[in-house]
Amino acid sequence: MLSLSKHEDTLSNCRLYLVSPPKLSAANFLIPLKEALEGGDVASFQLRLKHVSDDEIRRAVDTLRPAVQAHGAAFILNDRPDLAAELGCDGVHVGQEDASYAEARRLLPKAIVGVTCHDSRHLAMEAGEAGADYVAFGAFFPTQTKEPKTSADIELLRWWAQTMVVPCVAIGGITLANAPALIEAGADFLAVSAGVWEHPSGPEDAVRAFNTLFDA
Is the pTM of this model over 0.85? Predict the structure, then answer.
């Protein structure tokens, strides 16, 4: 099974977790996605499509998943453990208002299951104790990708890294400029969307620059 654990043989203690733009044409998006994957180490890619049909999600997964998996990254589907199991995804990410962790694990017993925990230590501890492969905290910075329900403090990452073994993902408005504080605090993964797809030099250069930060 693909894992979101850290590479023990690299200098980096943090890795990149790509998140798709909120709206996309899979055929057109395949080009920048492949460019991003050429930029260096990418732990995972999450397809996050809201308010679209199941068939549209299926088409997007079938188009994008092979490129992600060929790169050695995990293909994570947002919200839908049923479709993740059906379509050969490596895992699913569930929010507090989506399918429960228990339901996701039932459908994907050997896959990655990550859980949104907003800014809550309690939710994160519950998810970790239940067996989640990672917990996600945020939003750490203002973001236009989605309307964040909570604002998380960087000290939350520091506390989690010092006391828990379950990996944590930082999400929300992350760019090359603000990423160092999250890395220093102990985030295992940075979930980045616009910070890669809207980078002025293109997604490949953005991924390369993030990996340079991780290895610094």
Answer: yes
* Distance (Å, whole) CA 203 – CA 38: 9
Q: What is the CA radius of gyration of the chain?
A: 16
180 to 59, 169, 174, 212: CA distances (angstroms): 36, 14, 10, 11
CA-to-CA separations, 27 to 33, 49, 99, in angstroms, rounded: 10, 15, 28
Q: SS3 of 30, please?
A: helix
**Would you list the domain boundaries of the chain?**
15-215
What CATH number has the domain spanning 15-215? Answer: 3.20.20.70
| pLDDT, tens only, 19-74 | 999 999 999 999 999 999 999 999 999 999 999 999 999 999 999 999 999 999 99
Residues of the chain with pLDDT > 70, as a percent, come to: 93
